[in-house]
Every structure is written in C-alpha cells, then in structure tokens.
Design a protein that fits this description.
Glycerol-3-phosphate (1)-acyltransferase, about 30% helix
C-alpha cells in the first residue's frame, strides 16, 4: 500500500490493542479492503465475497486470513468463521453496507449488528477517504501516489446492554450503528478536509 499510494492513518491508537473488535468501514472503491488490511495495526480478517476467491487470489486470500462469504444467502460457514475470529480475540472487518456504494453508510445490512450483539465485541468505525476520484491512469485503481486517508473512530458497544438478540434488538442496534458510523464519517471528512 505504501509503495503505490500514500496512506495517512489517523487515530489508529483508538483500535484496542487486544481483544475482539469489529472494524466497520465505508466502502466506495475496491481498494478499500486491501488498504485497511495493509495499514491496520492488528491482523484484520474481512468477510470477502466468494467471487473474489478465484485463481491465484484464492490461496492468497486464505493465507492472509480472509473469510469467504456467499452474499446470496445466510452463509453459516462464514458466520461461524467470523464468530470464531472474535472468540479468539481477533479483529473482524465488515463493510456494513454489504457491497461497494457511495461509502456514506446510507443503508446498512443487519450483519454487523448481529456480530456485535452476538459477540459483545466493540465496534470501531473507520473511514477510507480518497480512494475514489478523477484522473486515474488505471480506471480500477486510485491515482498512483495519491493520498488516501484512513481515519479510526472511538470504539462503541452496539447493543443496548440487555444481551437480547431478538429481531427488534438487532434492528435497534443497526440504527445505533448507522448513527455512529455516519457521525464518524462526517468527523473524518472534516478532519481530513475531504
């Protein structure tokens, strides 16, 4: 990441040094996941769409601890693997919108709330800014040597403290998460001038 772009990581000290953590990031470009994996101060295990696990990328993604997920269904194998990362005190990365979009946290899926409430792990918001833009030499990548900002936020608990895992509790947790992620994104934009 440092050879191709100029990542600037702000607030990485907010990521707890140990214990289970869920890193929740915005996702507006295909480089966001690799950028987070390459700059995170702890090993990061993302839920990655199964379509990415093809050819030589398959053994590479497995070797660096990424988790294959079938986004078309409730993939129990992926869910178990993700909960296992948290049970072992690791860092699970999730793009809560489920796919690339405008990166504004406009519509979240319930997966992040499920993992947060089920595991009790704190959620750390992270914003990746500068990965999209004009003037690309290669359309699939940000301009080479451009600055990409990675801004970590304060950890927070998504649950309401009751330990309930009902549909209503997950919906309420999703709303809390969306509010916190949206606020963090606004903070990150202001802090970086983007």
């Amino acid at each position: 990441m440092n050879g191709l772009w100029r990542p600037r990581v702000l607030g990485a000290w907010r990521l707890p040094a140990q214990g289970p953590v869920i890193l929740a990031g915005n996702h507006s470009h295909n480089i966001d996941g690799p950028m987070l994996i390459g700059t995170c101060p702890r090993p990061l295990h993302f839920l990655v769409k199964k379509e990415a696990f093809v050819g030589p990328l398959d053994p590479f993604l497995r070797a660096i601890g990424q988790l294959k997920v079938d986004r078309a269904s409730a993939d129990r194998t992926a869910i178990t693997a993700a909960l296992g990362v948290l049970a072992r005190g690791g860092v699970l990365g999730i793009f809560p919108e489920g796919t690339r979009g405008d990166g504004e946290f406009a519509q979240l899926r319930a997966g992040l709330a499920y993992f947060a409430v089920r595991s009790g792990a704190p959620v750390v918001p992270v914003a990746v800014l500068g990965s999209t833009g004009e003037g690309r030499l290669v359309s699939a990548l940000p301009p080479l040597r451009s600055r990409i900002d990675i801004v970590y936020g304060e950890p927070f608990d998504a649950g309401d403290g009751s330990g309930r895992r009902t549909r209503g509790a997950l919906d309420a947790a999703t709303l809390r998460i969306q509010e916190r992620l949206t606020a963090h994104l606004a903070y990150a934009k202001q802090a970086t001038g983007r």
